[in-house]
Amino acid sequence: MRDYFLPSKANPVKILIVDDDANVRSILAQHLSHENCACITSENAFDALNKIKHTDFSLVISDVMMPGMAGTELLRFIKRQDSATSVIMITGVLDIGTAVDCLRLGACDYITKPFNLPVVRRAVDRALEQRQLLIENQYYQQELEKKVREQLGKLNGALKEVEESYKITLEAITTALDAREHETQAHSQRVREFTLTLARQLGLEGEDLVHAGRGALLHDVGKIGVPDSILLKPAKLTVEEWVEMKKHPQIGYDILLPIKFLSPAAEIVLSHQERWDGKGYPNGLGGTDIPLGARIFAAVDTMDAMLSNRPYRKALPIEAVTEELRRFSGTQFDPQVVEAFLSIPCETWLSIHESVTLLYKSQEFQDLLCRK
Question: Which of 22, 61, 245, 335 is deepest in the core (most CB within 10 A)?
Answer without folding.
Answer: 61
